[in-house]
Fold this protein.
Amino acid sequence: MKNTLWFCLLVTLPCCAQADWVQVSTTQQEYSVYVDAASVTANGDFRKVSVLFDMPKPESLPGLKHSFSSYKVLAEINCKEIEFRKLATAFFTGHMAQGEIVIDDKEAESTWKSVPPGSVGSRFVTYACAERELGLSALP
C-alpha cells in the first residue's frame, strides 16, 4: 500500500508542483541523471528520492509498443550500507518525465542492490544522503 501511495505521488506531482531537478551525472551513453532535491525524505539512515533518467533520443524495450525518452524511479536508499532499491518506476514518451506514461511499474524490483563506487547510482546515492545530513548538495 505504501508503494502504491508513493507511486501515485511520483507520477502525479509533476502536474501539481515543479520538481527541483538537479543534474548529478551524464553517462558515457550520453543520458543524464537528475535527482529531485525537493523529494528527498529521511528516516534514520534511509532516504527516499525521485531519480530521473533522461535519454538523448527515444529508446525502446522488447514488447513495448511506444518508445520512451525518460524514466523516473522512486528509490529507497540505505545510506549506511550504500545500497538502494526501486520502489516504483514510470517510463515517459517525452524528455524530463513529460508526455504519455508508457509503463508504470508500482511494484518495481524490491531487492537491495549495492552501489559500486564511481557508478551512476553512487552519484544519486551520495547526493541524497548528503542532502539530508548536511542540508546542502554533495555535488555541484
Summary: The domain at 2-134 is CATH 2.40.128.710 (Lipocalin). Residues 1-16, 134-140 have pLDDT under 50 and may be disordered.
